[in-house]
Amino acid sequence: MPDQTMAKQFATFAAGLRFEDVPIALVDKAKLHILDTLGCAIAPARSDSAKTILAALMRLGTAHESVAIGQG
User: Fold this and answer.
1) What whole-number distance in Å separates Cα of residue 3 and Cα of residue 51?
2) What is the pTM assigned to this prediction?
3) Eight-class DSSP state of 1
4) Contacts of 19 by beta carbon, 8 Å cutoff, 6+ apart
């Protein structure tokens, strides 16, 4: 595989990976990080600063163009 780009090598590896091949400790760690990320995204979603930023962003485009976690 030396003639393949790093991205192609990673894609080939990922495409062939089966869930059963991933160590349970890694799965548990990934779950923890996903929950942490969601918590960090959702927790401040209703804060005054988030509402101000969202209002400013809404003036730049419509809600159909993008998604903000924790917002309608």
Assistant:
1) 50
2) 0.58
3) -
4) 27
